[in-house]
TrEMBL record:
InterPro entries in UniProt: RGS_sf (IPR036305)
Compositionally biased residues, Low complexity: 182-199
Region (Disordered): 180-206
Signal peptide residues on this chain, from the entry's feature table: none
Organism the protein comes from: Didymosphaeria variabile
Name the record gives this protein: RGS domain-containing protein
Transmembrane segments: 20-43, 55-77, 89-111, 153-171
SUPFAM superfamilies reported in the protein's UniProt record: Regulator of G-protein signaling, RGS (SSF48097)
Domain of life: Eukaryota
Keywords recorded for this protein, A-Z: Membrane, Transmembrane, Transmembrane helix
Length: 411
């Protein structure tokens, strides 16, 4: 029996507007409308922290590019082969991988924030410390390990582009010597390799927080008590649930700073200089948006006053070079007017022996000129009150609700 020949569905003729073709067209239109509404609602909520964390422009670009590719795939059958193969190849080669890469960059931003919060929870100075790049295999490998997730994506993308060019140039030269049949075979093989899609990223839906009426635990007095006696649990919760640990860490460090220096009845010139250095370290690592990894959000007028208090200090995040000679001006113990997160001065006791040597006596006048006359241990009080109110209105109610859900007996 002779085999039956069925007509080809994609023959380059008239568009296929049969039942299957209409279903594909309607699906593309409906999905486009639904996606447009969702993106509009996302734009309306652009001020939400979860949206700002991922980056609205990155989300829109990734979703748009992937949607263009999906629509073209859905319209392949209705167009009946009228879509040029060359255009299909370039759309498949550009829109799909670039859309997935941008989507990965969006996820890398979230991973970067998570790693930053986890690092700040352990040691908030760790993120401020930087190492100078050593152009050796070991130094480059250590620099790669120190990069955050987003930076690794950027560096990996650039390296991948360079390597792909270095690989494609010899392949192009070699393909010139092949026959037309082998060129078509290699082209089809290469096209098939480009159609492989990356594995889908599973996303966990965020757990909904139960809305309850504020109990007495949610009062300002309860927050102040928690800051004074049990702020570590609040830091742990904000770092893992809200990615806003910088606010509670700032409250803890200012609390410790005031306790440390307000206990002294009299403050010598050297101790006043040390107090100013410790306050500068808090300012540069948690407040200043140009130097802090994750700065707190305070009013500009408060930040401006703090900036005036520490304008004479220089911030150096890099590991200082140790010198064999203690009198070397590059030695970290001899550098004046420099704040370095590698030298953790916050753990030193305030009542340390402050005997002034001959060299330090000669620099007493410079110390007095460096530290402003209005500088006291309460230099961070306005910023402390601002952040405390911010935590009270945003973080504290959700934290109390979560504690009530986890410990129902405490209600």
């Amino acid at each position: 029996m002779a085999p039956l020949r069925l007509p080809r569905s994609l023959d380059g003729g008239a568009p296929n507007f049969d039942a299957a073709g209409i279903i594909y067209v309607v699906a593309a239109i409906l999905y486009t409308l639904v996606l447009a509404v969702e993106l509009f609602l996302l734009y309306r909520q652009r001020s939400a922290f979860c949206v700002r964390l991922r980056g609205l422009d990155i989300v829109f670009t990734s979703v748009s590019m992937l949607h263009v590719y999906l629509v073209l795939v859905l319209l392949v059958y209705p167009l009946n082969g009228q879509w040029p193969c060359a255009a299909e190849f370039w759309v498949m080669s550009i829109f799909l991988p670039l859309g997935m890469a941008i989507f990965q960059a969006c996820n890398a931003r979230v991973l970067k924030a998570y790693e930053s919060q986890r690092r700040m929870k352990t040691d908030f100075l760790a993120g401020a410390r930087k190492k100078r790049l050593a152009w050796t295999p070991k130094g480059l490998f250590e620099a790669w390990l120190d990069l955050d997730a987003a930076a690794k994506v950027h560096v990996g993308t650039i390296v991948g582009l360079v390597i792909s060019v270095l690989i494609l140039i010899p392949l192009r030269d070699a393909s010139k010597d092949r026959t037309t049949q082998r060129r078509s075979l290699s082209s089809s093989t290469y096209t098939d390799s480009l159609t492989s899609t990356p594995s889908n990223i599973s996303e966990k839906s965020p757990a909904s927080i139960l809305s309850r009426e504020l109990k007495p635990k949610a009062s300002m007095q309860a927050l102040e008590f928690s800051i004074e006696h049990n702020i570590e649990s609040l830091i742990e919760w904000t770092a893992s649930r809200e990615f806003t640990a910088e606010n509670t860490i700032f409250l803890r460090e200012v609390r410790n700073f005031k306790k440390k220096w307000s206990s002294l009845r009299t403050v010598t010139t050297v101790q006043r200089r040390r107090m100013h250095t410790e306050a500068s370290l808090i300012f540069f690592t948690l407040v200043n948006p140009f130097t802090a990894e994750t700065p707190i959000n305070i009013e500009y007028k408060i930040f401006k006053k703090l900036q005036e208090q520490f304008e004479g200090m220089e911030y150096d995040p890099y590991m200082p070079k140790r010198s064999a000679s203690p009198t070397d001006p590059m030695s970290p113990t001899e550098r004046e007017y420099v704040v370095c997160p590698w030298e953790n001065t916050l753990d030193r006791p305030a009542s340390i022996d402050s005997n002034i040597s001959g060299a330090s006596v000669s620099s007493t006048s410079s110390i007095k000129s460096l530290v402003p006359s209005q500088f006291t241990e309460g230099v961070f009080d306005p910023a402390f009150e601002s952040i405390k109110y911010l935590v009270f209105t945003n973080t504290w109610p959700r934290y109390v609700d979560a504690e009530m859900v986890n410990n129902p007996r405490s209600q």
